[in-house]
Amino acid sequence: MKHCFYNESVGFFYNNSRKELTTYWRTKDILVVALGLTVSLIVLLTNLLVIAAIIINRRFHYPIYYLLGNLAAADLFAGIAYMFLMFHTGPRTAELSVKTWFIRQSLLDTSLTASVVNLLAIAVERHQTVLTMQLHSKMSNQRVTILIFCIWATALLLGLIPSYGWHCLCALEECSSMAPLYSRSYLTFWAISNLLVFLLMAVVYAHIFIYVKRKMGRMSAHTSFHPRYRETVVGLVKTVTIILGAFLICWTPGQVVLLLDGLGCKSCNVLAVEKYVLLLAEINSLINAIVYSYRDNEMRSTFRRILCTVCYRNPKYTPTAVKPNGADRGSLSLNGHFTVDSSI
């Protein structure tokens, strides 16, 4: 029968995993916390702005924007979770109870998982909209609600699993180095899951790009060359590059480090970079708002309405009209030509 260490302190597990637990604030700790709180605050403000814009502007009451709003909510939650971490890290870690430590980690895991799964849902929605040549997704509000519920159910499941059994409190030899109360097998599972999500996103966006390029290429061969063809294709390449590049840069380092720790790599100094790869993942919550929302002309106009009430009350100021090929448009027919806006 296995002996479990439920009544031990957090320090006991950190000593078991040979992870340093300081009792005083080092310069490195102060810099990490200061930078982390700054990033968290910016993430909170930008994603609150996105959520407010989607709520007050009726033109955003479509499935894709509901998903963007849910992504902003997930990233807002990630900002709160990271801020909670910053207030409970460094020397304060030793003061945490095992329960509080699990809450700290579960908040991070749940919020980051919700953000990643939501990114995949947006990619699939864009894929469906572009390939069916629809102005808006035919997905009903009920289906969008169910999808959002599934996203959060998945995030909660993956975030809470360690607290309810997938830990190492009863098997100290299975404890990881980065998260001394987590089982290495859980870290391996979580890392592989996120890497698979990235692979799926890459496949989906690659198919969108190939489809659009072929479709517009065939039309340009049979009809007069549309002046927006080159602009659309180049813009599409830029958008897909930004989306996948941001995800790759912000998420892959952390997932690789988690995977190495989960696989029990003894020669890999994962603890030396753990704080920085986590900060990179948090920065992705800021980049998401920029890539998926701030590149939309109507969204930017709504931001101005929120931030510049003086300008909004000026009769000379009018919000930018929604363009027929705006960022919320997957695809449509323009003068008989199929076109896709570059900001998918």
TrEMBL record:
Keyword Transferase tagged: no
Ranges for domain G-protein coupled receptors family 1 profile: 46-292
Entry keyword annotation includes Glycoprotein: yes
Pfam families reported in the protein's UniProt record: 7tm_1 (PF00001)
Domain of life: Eukaryota
Keywords: Cell membrane, Disulfide bond, Endosome, G-protein coupled receptor, Glycoprotein, Membrane, Receptor, Transducer, Transmembrane, Transmembrane helix
Gene Ontology terms, MF aspect: lysophosphatidic acid receptor activity
UniProt subcellular location: Cell membrane; Cell surface; Endosome
Residue ranges of the TM segments: 30-57, 64-87, 107-124, 144-166, 186-212, 233-256, 276-294
GO cellular component: cell surface; endosome; plasma membrane
Membrane topology field: Multi-pass membrane protein
PANTHER family, alphabetized: G-PROTEIN COUPLED RECEPTOR (PTHR22750)
Record-stated family: Belongs to the G-protein coupled receptor 1 family.
Protein name per its UniProtKB record: G-protein coupled receptors family 1 profile domain-containing protein
Organism: Bambusicola thoracicus
